[in-house]
Design a protein that fits this description.
Elements lengths: L22 E4 L14 H12 L3 E5 L4 H8 L7 E4 L4 E3 L5 E3 L4 H12 L5 E6 L2 E4 L22 E7 L3 H12 L3 E7 L2 E6 L4 H8 L9 E5 L5 H6 L2 E4 L5 H6 L2 E2 L7 H10 L1
Length: 269
């Protein structure tokens, strides 16, 4: 059984070349979810109102698919979902696409991470996250070096690293590799394949039905930055990082104050 209850309106979506906002997408943690990791009833109602007006709604998250489903089900039925910062995409036409890290990049990233005092390395393999045993170098009994190549391997690598100087040095080291590095918390670095971001995942999810100029997106942290900069209208919640607020087109209320309800009211007025 699919973990999501999807909107039943996908077949009526048509190509749109104007710049009217037709699509709304949101991050989960720190954005759609409040501090209790719940969706406000006002946001659930706003999303339903948005979709009833003939617009599309989607999730753009760093979480794995099951984590997204737990957060929104059964109240919200998205038209598309971008998981793992773009490494897994469920498109508006229902098709799924995984974009894993090449095996050579996995080896390079793990080598870089292991050179610094990381508290934990998390390996997301075929959509499921596992802690890496740093003594054996295995996760869930698997040696990453023995994984098959692209298409069957690792979707995302993450590291918890609390020392600010070491974290900055690790980011510099990862920047030299053919991967994309971002963060969803102060001490939490996330690595996907080269060019794999929420923004590229969103473009894939829309399946050429809508341009990015027709999208409004909202987020709170570093892994939302490329997305907020690429869409027609980028929102930052009030609790977002200063950097994300600086690149956003508009600011809205905090994740604790039902931000989607305010955005929908803004866009449909």
């Amino acid at each position: 059984m699919a973990p999501f209850l999807f909107s039943e309106r996908r077949e009526i979506v048509t190509l749109c070349n104007d710049t009217l906002i037709r699509v709304l997408c949101t991050d989960l943690d720190g954005t759609l979810l409040n501090d209790k990791k719940e969706v406000a009833p006002a946001d659930v109602a706003a999303i339903k109102h948005w979709q009833a007006a003939g617009r599309l709604f989607g999730i753009t998250s760093g979480r794995q698919e099951t984590g997204v489903a737990r957060a929104i089900r059964p109240e919200i039925r998205p038209d598309f979902v971008v998981c793992l910062n773009g490494a897994l995409v469920i498109k508006v036409n229902g098709q799924r696409e995984r974009r894993p890290l090449p095996s050579t990049a996995v080896e390079q990233v793990l080598g870089a991470m292991n050179a610094y005092p990381v508290a934990q390395i998390i390996v997301t393999f075929q959509g499921i996250s596992h802690p890496l045993d740093q003594a054996s170098g295995e996760f869930a009994g698997i040696d990453p070096a023995h994984l098959p190549g692209s298409g069957q391997g690792i979707d995302k690598l993450s590291a918890i690293i609390r020392d600010p100087r070491a974290r900055a040095d690790l980011r510099l080291a990862l920047a030299q590799l053919p991967v994309t590095t971002t963060h969803s918390d102060t001490d939490y670095l996330e690595v996907t394949g080269q060019g794999i971001t929420k923004a590229s995942g969103l473009q894939l999810a829309l399946a050429d039905r809508y341009p990015l100029a027709a999208v409004a997106a909202v987020g709170d942290y570093g892994n939302d930055e490329a997305l907020i900069k690429s869409v027609g209208l980028g929102y930052a919640v009030a609790n977002a990082t200063p950097r994300l607020k600086a690149v956003a087109d508009r600011l809205t209320v905090a994740n604790t104050d039902a931000p989607i309800s305010h955005i929908v009211q803004d866009l449909l007025k």
